[in-house]
Amino acid sequence: MNVALFTESFLPGCGGTENAVLKTAYELVNKGHKVAVFAPDYHRANNDKDYPFLVIRCKSIKITESDQFALPSLDKKVKKALKEFAPDVIHANTTGMMAGYGLKYGKKHNIATLCTAHMPYKRSWQQTINFPPIIWWVMHRIIKRLRLADQVCTVSNFMVKELQSYGYKKQIAVVKNGNTDNTFEEKAYTPNGKFTLTYVGRIVKYKNLDFVLEVVKELTKTTKNFVLRMVGDGPDFKKYNARCKKMGIQNYVEFVGRITDREKLGEEYKKADIFFFPSVIDSDGLGLLEAATKGTPSLVVENTGPSERITNNKTGFTAENNVKAFAEKVLWLMQNPKIVEEVGKNSKQICTTWENNVEEYVKLYLETIKKVKEK
């Protein structure tokens, strides 16, 4: 089967969707399918020839290092490459211009189309711009693109409700993300020194980072024996560095920067007491799975996409989206190292694989191809 993956988010960008598209492509190839990834050019050299699948780059406007405004309709080579590849199915993994182009092409040429929604778009736009007319226009475009797809998918039940709140009424398939490496490690939990909270992700406002710093500030009223390590990069990196100093918490927050070496990143997860991930816009959260393989449990906000994987105090920890409640939960964890150790051992139960993820997608591809042919 020839599978065309359309996405605004791909390497060298940094984020969960980039990783999900990459792993989906690899696993499809492993199962004997041909894959072509259509993505923005990111205005830099890319080692695309190293991949065991095709990568077709299109013109784009740079917004940030990881965010590009793709212009597939203005790039003739996209249409040419798509025609030559002759896809059996077109799978959009974002809802921007790349998705719109791929889905429209599929409709025009009677090719089965799927669209996977990876994030709660309205919430992220509200935290980024919060200008109602623009948000209304963006959401209108997103829903229009979703309705072009023969099958809409997402990664959590949280996201199903989110898409339904936008006015999408058709059936939505849930396909959970997989984990990059399901080699589990047992770690000897010997609490000493400062209690380490580790965040891994983009340094950007919509990740609830204002909340993160407020929690740190609240914790300092009770204890000084902790540190928050912020692993990642993003457009707001300097802003949050400066804010820590302004809030007087710079001695409790360490900005590590982006780590691309998987082994070094694994060490960050392993030496953490808790993977600290209070994002309310992530639909699933790949970091939870990566931390679990190192025996590190996660603390997330209850009733969110990431919290779906967790049974509180059994396979991870949850708390209210409230600064005091979150700080109190961290203090409780600091006081109960045995529980942290036990839950860390159990956390591997939350993991799923990319192999299972792609098996589910292949079934959906075949079902959708059949439905389109029967129309």
SSE layout and pairing:
Elements: E1 2-6, H1 16-30, E2 34-40, E3 54-58, E4 60-62, E5 68-70, H2 76-85, E6 89-92, H3 97-108, E7 112-117, H4 121-128, H5 132-148, E8 151-154, H6 157-165, E9 172-174, E10 195-200, H7 209-219, E11 226-231, H8 237-247, E12 253-257, H9 262-271, E13 274-277, H10 286-292, E14 298-301, E15 317-319, H11 323-335, H12 337-346, H13 354-374
Parallel strand pairs: 1-2, 1-6, 2-3, 6-7, 7-8, 8-9, 10-11, 10-13, 11-12, 13-14, 14-15
Antiparallel strand pairs: 4-5
Characterization of the model:
- The chain is built from 13 helices and 15 strands.
- The chain has helices spanning 16-30, 76-85, 97-108, 121-128, 132-148, 157-165, 209-219, 237-247, 262-271, 286-292, 323-335, 337-346, 354-374, and strands spanning 2-6, 34-40, 54-58, 60-62, 68-70, 89-92, 112-117, 151-154, 172-174, 195-200, 226-231, 253-257, 274-277, 298-301, 317-319.
- α1 (16-30) crosses α13 (354-374) and α7 (209-219) crosses α11.
- The mean pLDDT is 93.
